[in-house]
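In the current project phase, the collection of sequences with tokenised folds has grown. One resulting record follows, to show the layout:
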Amino acid sequence: MRYGCYVLLQGDFSHAVLELSFNDHDYVRLNEGMETWTTVGKLAEMLMEAWASTEFIHDLKTNLVSGCVEVIFRELEYGKEFFLRKEHS
């Protein structure tokens, strides 16, 4: 599984990434506009059918938009000393 989001310099959400891979060839991928999905393989199609019958997809998108940005800024705060350090020659 690979997921994350891109955040603009002013801190606004840009877009998300979500991919689930099975057996190195079947996969589910959220397309960049976050409106459509790409599925490859029978397992991926079955998973999307199961998700479509619940609120899971809506909740997943909501978490990617709001939760992901929050996590990025929290992690940046934890690591700010490292990111802001200056190399001494």
User: Anything to note?
Assistant: Residues 6 and 14 are 5 Å apart (CA to CA). The first strand starts at residue 2 and ends at 7.
